[in-house]
Amino acid sequence: MLSRTADNLYWLARYVERAEYLARILEATQRLASMPLAYIGETNEWESALSTAGCSSAFFAAHEEANEATVTDFLAFSTSNPSSIRNCFEVARSNARAVRTALTMEMWDAINTTWLELKRFGNRPSSREELARFLTWVQECSLRFDGSAYRTMLRNDAYWFSRIGVYTERADNTARILDVKYHLLLPAHEHVGGPLDYYQWSGILRSVSALTAYHWVYRESLKPWLIADLLILNDQMPRSLASCYENLVQNLDRIAGVYGRQGPAQRQARSVRTRLQNSKMDEIFQSGLHEFITSFITDNNKLGSAITQQYLA
Amino acid sequence: MPVGLAFDEMKGTDGQVRAPYSELANWLGDVKADVLDYRRREAELLFRRIGITFAVYGEADSTERLIPFDVIPRILGAKEWDLLRRGLEQRVRAINEYLRDVYTRREVLRAGIVPDDLVFQNPVFRPEMNGQKVPHNIYVHIAGIDIVRVDPETFYVLEDNARTPSGVSYMLENREIMMRLFPELFARHRVAPVENYPDELLATLKSVAPDSASGDPTVVLLTPGVYNSAYYEHSFLADKLGVELVEGRDLFVKSGLVYMRTTQGPKRVDVIYRRVDDDFLDPLSFRADSALGVAGLMSAYQAGNVTLANAVGTGIADDKAIYSYMPDIVKFYLGEEPILKNVPTWRCREPDHLAYVLDHLEELVVKEVHGSGGYGMLIGPAADKAQIASFRTKLKLNPKGFIAQPTLALSTCPTCVDAGIAPRHVDLRPFVLTGRDKIRIVPGGLTRVALKAGSLVVNSSQGGGTKDTWVLDR
User: Fold this and answer.
1) Cα dist from A58 to A33, A47, A51, A195, B255, whole Å
2) Distance from C-alpha of A185 to C-alpha of A191, rounded to nearest angstrom
3) DSSP β-bridge partners for residue B402
4) A85: phi then psi, degrees, rounded to nearest 5
5) What is the pTM for the complete model shown?
6) Confidence category of residue A40, pLDDT binned at 50, 70, 90
7) Which of A173, B20, B27, B394 is most buried, taking the most CB atoms under 10 A from its CB?
């Protein structure tokens, strides 16, 4: 297939995934920010939402203060923030339009309908209820798009490139949450938060839609090291780094199989997966959770460039 | 032009329902207005969701707009179609002969059929094509010939489109939507299918691959990109053809061969169905500022390693200045009388024609020789004094730049409007495919309809709509 088509599919999937992630972040932040300070401590959740979304510097270049109104607007509706939900959907739709022929009718319909409905939400919601409806809608759009891809696409390179986009983005998103919140997940004796952190922990899980999953997997009350385990090493958890890399390796291998050739992308994905497979949570804590996450983010970016060089350029 | 005087496709001039329309007239008599209205809205919703939109140049606000679709079909009987089909085939054969001649032996010029200066001083004439052999001597693989009708027997060719004619996606989608919305109407008629158009097109394109191509040639569709007004059509066709939709940046030329960049490395391309104008095809040969084209494409083409459909330089066949010579061109090459007539045309370059035109501006349609899309024309009967005066000045300054035609009473077809069903003027663009083996014409075409009462301008950029076109198989 055309490199440009593959590139568009890859980014289309990434942008839809990112929009969903931003919606989850906003939901979780809203929830935390509305709690009495006694329960969550003296934190500015809105600032932390910006770092988790990876756009603090862009935000503060244009705004003085991070609060509910400014951050919600910036992450959800702003046209000047290239990664706002609105722009994610705009870019996703224009990518989709550029590769109409590579999409199934259902996928096109999902993304085009999203784009048409986006206009109806106007520039900013008039109330928290409306915002809540908007955020739910964003997640539904992403689910619909993802479901359409899963259920209607031919299992060929177009599908695999689109999956690779989803998992690269997802891995990046999960890693970013961990990067911003890692200090809350350190083993109990190492940090000073105390019971305040309970709501922070559940906030983290909510932002990757893993709160229920946590209880099913561990059958325990929230423990920070288990949360870290769930998000990093547990391959049953669809948003964990391990699961993302399991999928990345699989999809890259399928492409290599059909094309009859492997390259740096396959090797990079496999080496990250091996590292995840061979890690144990206590070792990660010992050698430094933050260092682990930082180097994961670097590795994940390396994979992105390898994929681009090998297939998309 | 008062609509009442025009020939109506359904009711002729005497109000009697014509045979091809008898079933439709019965059905229209029975169907409730709200049913029609409901289906009409449903059709719009379908179009919107499928994403058939087009961009109108110059309208900053609406980069994507729907072309209005009218649910009442335009119907042609088998005999009418047979006449059209033969006429179209003849015309396109002559156009291909003429192009080959103009770029090689130039007998048509030596015989004085077409004046030299109209060819050589014409900006759409491409000197790069002089003496250039094109694969299988076919220049125009895809033609869209605009036809208007003024009475039961007379079809005129209004315009030949021999460069990158568009609109065929509407022909196909209109039929899809009509079949979805009005299955009972199709059950009452025997409508010749059009859905095989993409197959016919692909067969045509593969048949003209260069001799050096492999047994199964690689065909691509070259689009200027998403910002082009016909982008939807490009993606639609590429999809139906099962070929890659490429932009200039997806292609490159190496050692005289054209390749596309794929996820598996470079892949050779044999036939390019290009929807990019000559000017933008190759920055090395034409406009250096074009970012839409492929550097070196012309050299690969001239080396005979790739087929461009349509060929470069075909504008010299469909230019409005050449149009008026087309009946003579048909006779010159084929030795036959043209089956489809031209609209009588005054060439303002000829002094006696100009004098007549200046005296009769109020009743004529004056067109710019190089205009298109319904822009830059004067419709005498609909114009006010100031417009006529300004055109008079333009004409005197540059008579060569204009032709004039009588204001035709274009035929009308019943159409859904706000006040119910009313006659509106229509034209027809059938698509003619010329391959190495044969000419293929799918029965039907795109019917465009002027939605404003009395309007004769059917262009989508000027508020025209479209209709499904039915050719009955008996």
Assistant:
1) 22, 12, 10, 33, 47
2) 9
3) B368
4) -55, -45
5) 0.84
6) low
7) A173
A273, two tokens: 């997966």
CA distance A290 to B325: 80
Separation of alpha carbons A155 and B254, rounded Å: 33
Q: Distance (Å, rounded) from C-alpha A18 to C-alpha A11?
A: 10
Chain B nearest C-alpha distance from A105 (Å) = 8
> Amino acid identity of B394?
K
Confidence of residue B375 (pLDDT cuts 50, 70, 90): low
Q: Is the dihedral of CA B452, B456, B460, B462 positive or negative?
A: negative
Q: For residues A229 and B275, what is the distance between their CA atoms, to the nearest angstrom?
A: 55
The Cα B59–Cα B82 span in angstroms is 40
What confidence tens digit (pLDDT) does each residue in B171-225 have? 999 999 999 899 989 998 999 999 999 999 999 999 999 998 988 999 999 999 9
Q: Does B64 touch chain A (CB under 8 A)?
A: no
Q: How far apart are alpha carbons A289 and A179 in whole angstroms? A: 9
DSSP letter at B407 equals: -
B226–A97 C-beta distance less than 8 A: yes
Enter the tokens of residue B356. Answer: 């007549």
Reported ipTM = 0.78
pLDDT (tens digit, 9 = 90+) per residue, B127-143? Answer: 999 999 999 999 999 99
Residues B434 and B141 sit within 8 Å (Cβ to Cβ):
yes
Residue of B nearest to A7 (CA): B263
Neighbour count for residue B322 (Cβ, 10 Å):
25
Query: Bridge partners of A2?
Result: B262
Q: Provide the token pair at A94.
A: 């224009």
Residue B143: C-alpha distances to residues B19, B61, B91, B97 (Å): 30, 32, 10, 14
Q: Residue B64: which of B77, B78, B51 has the closest Cα?
A: B51
Measured between beta carbons, which residues in chain A are less than 8 angstroms from residue B226? Answer: 94, 97-98
A-chain residue closest to B236, CA distance: A101
Q: What is the DSSP letter of A75?
A: I
**The residue to which tokens 């964990």 are assigned:** A240
> In angstroms, what is the C-alpha Rg of chain A?
19
Q: Which of B48, B235, B263 is opposite residue A1, by nearest beta carbon?
A: B263
**Structure token pair of residue A62:** 């244009």
